[in-house]
Amino acid sequence: MALLLFFWLFPITFLAGLLSYKEIKKTMPWLGDLIDRNDKIRAIVQNSLPSVAMISLNALAPFILEGGFQTFEMLVVRC
């Protein structure tokens, strides 16, 4: 369980930090300028994008874990 927490914590933290409006403007100024041109797009990026990304990543978690466990089981059976 601790291993799962360790390997899930870093991608989630990285994604949350990367999708913040300030971080987008800092790391990719051209994308920040594009976002600033339209108020609706800026509202979506500031309000919805981080939440949708986190929900999507958490929804994929069971499939990722199932695939990882199947791979681990195949390796154990071969040995």
Account of the 3D structure:
The protein has 79 residues and is mainly α. It has one domain (16-78). 91% of the residues lie in helices and 0% in strands. Helix 2 (21-27) packs across helix 3 (29-36). It is elongated and about 55 Å long. The chain starts with a helix and ends with a helix.
Oligomer status = single chain
The major pleated sheet works out as: none
Q: What fraction, in percent, of the residue positions are helical?
A: over 70%
Uncertain runs with pLDDT below 50, 5 residues or more?
A: none
Keywords:
mainly alpha; 79 residues; 4 helices; elongated; 0% strand
Layout of strands and helices, then pairs:
Blueprint: H1 2-18, H2 21-27, H3 29-36, H4 39-78
Task: Give a short overview.
Helix content is 91%, strand content 0%. The chain has 79 residues and is mainly alpha-helical. Helix 2 packs across helix 3.
